[in-house]
Amino acid sequence: MQRKDWALGLILVVFAVQPVACHTKAPEVAPGPPADAHLSDAAPSIDALLDQFVAAVGAKDMQALTRLRVTEAEYRNIIIPGNVPLGHAPRTFPEKTSKFTWSLNDTKSIYWEGALLGSFGGHQYTRKEVKYGNGIEEYAWFKAYKRVELTLVDETGREVELRTGSIAEVNGRYKFLSFAGGG
Predict the structure, then answer these.
(1) Is 29 helix (H, G, I), strand (E, B) or coil?
(2) In order of start, what are the domains of the chain with their CATH numbers?
(3) Max alpha carbon distance in the chain (Å)?
(4) Alpha carbon distance 29, 133 (integer Å)
(5) At what angle do helices 46-58 and 95-120 cross, to 10 degrees?
């Protein structure tokens, strides 16, 4: 009996240490943004966008300022689904939720636009420095330049600090995600 137990134990040990063929499935690669994902009327560079922003603020031009920000369709169809880490599947929300999220973003930006024009409008500025207070982050469908911090010089030579929201880059084109959040 001892011999049988010993033989059985040896067989179990041999099978336990033998490499086992594993059939692991390759990780699924999350799709990138839709081929037609683009930001309408977006700036070709971040410098061009910031120059347009500074000009619109200085001129107190609310319409020009608003055009520099993503539209509802861009926010709901590119930003929301693509706001996941690289390599992850796009995020999905019910239409009602994405509309509500857009509404919050839009409302905050509208109030912030008014504050920017009230505080900084009516001057001619040149950009001296730009920083991104919360860094630059890459998501699945876009790159975000978070919390824009501009050092501007007005026509009298006085330096001012202007903080505002974040910028999105989609396929090499740039628009503001929001003007809120610069406080």
Answers:
(1) coil
(2) 40-176 (3.10.450)
(3) 102
(4) 31
(5) 60
Distances (CA, A) of 28 to 44, 80, 125, 138: 32, 21, 49, 20
Q: Alpha-carbon distance 131 to 100, whole Å?
A: 30
Each residue's pLDDT tens digit, 108-137: 999 999 999 999 999 999 999 999 999 999
Query: For the whole prediction, is pTM greater than 0.85?
Result: no
Cβ pair 79, 98 in contact under 8 A: no
Q: Are strands 136-138 and 143-145 parallel, antiparallel or unpaired?
A: antiparallel
The SS3 of residue 163 is: strand
**Whose CA is closest to 117, among 177, 179, 43, 47?**
179
Torsion, Cα of 94, 65, 111, 127 (10° steps): 120
Nearest to 74 by CA among 49, 30, 39: 39
Sign of the four-CA dihedral 166, 170, 171, 175: negative
SS3 167: strand
Q: Each residue of 15-69: pLDDT tens digit?
A: 334 444 434 444 455 556 666 788 999 999 999 999 999 999 999 999 999 999 9
